[in-house]
Amino acid sequence: MRLDRFLWAKAGEVAALRRQERDGTLPAPLAGPRPDFLAALCRPPVQAPLAVIAEYKRASPSRGVICRHLTAGEVARQYAAAGAAALSVLSEERFFQGRLDYLAEAHAALADAGRPLPLLRKDFLFDPLQIRATAATPAAALLLIVGLTPDAGLLRQLRELAEHYGMQAIVEVFDADELHIARQSGARLIQVNARNLASLRVDCAACLDMARRFPPRDGECWIAASGMEHPDQLRAAAGVGYHAALVGTALMQDGQPGAALRGLLAGE
């Protein structure tokens, strides 16, 4: 699967946003402060080796349907009770069966439970209007992928726009060249994806090797993504300098995401 398929999948969304901009009907950004995503990842976990961003994930290109019967609100409540540091919500519709509305659903459930965890909008974002649309949701952070926008200037523009609206930007990389671009853009939240988005293959060893070869710098927070399924993998990631791990499929696949997260954090 080529990366341009992900861009193609978002073409309709971007076109609709441009029509809304032209007509003056873009939703207004939410007012008020948002939870600090970076600070949530930097708090030392009570028992786990690093913080876990737990993901609401219904499907994926590599696995197909993973879990569709649980709502975003139900999963958010389970994750919060189980000890997640933050929540990732997939909003991409074509390949992941997500929706932008799931962010509001998760936020409402967390508010009702008295657990205002920060939310990440995980999607294929590359246009300033997508950042503006994200600002109309309760997201505290959003994902930018160097493989889709391999231009440090554009990444900086998108990151600064997100920060203008009170959000933070995670910049995802796969290899050393992309890490260089991310650092040129001024990224502080850096996610290393063990999955090659072009081939969909996962190489957790390469993810660990990235942190050994190019250790996190002062002020950077590194997140390990894809293939993090077992406690020993969390310990290995923490041992080479990662501050957090993003876990989705391993938590959702058996339909008991809260119990799965609790066991992962407890080292079971």
Automatic annotation (TrEMBL):
It is an enzyme of class 4 (lyase). Keywords: Amino-acid biosynthesis, Aromatic amino acid biosynthesis, Decarboxylase, Lyase, Tryptophan biosynthesis. Residues 4-262 form the Indole-3-glycerol phosphate synthase domain. It catalyses: 1-(2-carboxyphenylamino)-1-deoxy-D-ribulose 5-phosphate + H(+) = (1S,2R)-1-C-(indol-3-yl)glycerol 3-phosphate + CO2 + H2O. One of its GO terms (biological process) is L-tryptophan biosynthetic process. Pathway: Amino-acid biosynthesis; L-tryptophan biosynthesis; L-tryptophan from chorismate: step 4/5. Gene3D superfamilies: Aldolase class I. GO terms for molecular function: indole-3-glycerol-phosphate synthase activity; phosphoribosylanthranilate isomerase activity. Its EC number is 4.1.1.48. PROSITE patterns: IGPS. InterPro entries: Aldolase_TIM, Indole-3-glycerol_P_synth, Indole-3-glycerol_P_synth_dom, Indole-3-GlycerolPSynthase_CS, RibuloseP-bd_barrel. PANTHER family: INDOLE-3-GLYCEROL-PHOSPHATE SYNTHASE (PTHR22854:SF2), TRYPTOPHAN BIOSYNTHESIS PROTEIN (PTHR22854). This is indole-3-glycerol-phosphate synthase. It comes from Candidatus Desulfovibrio intestinavium.
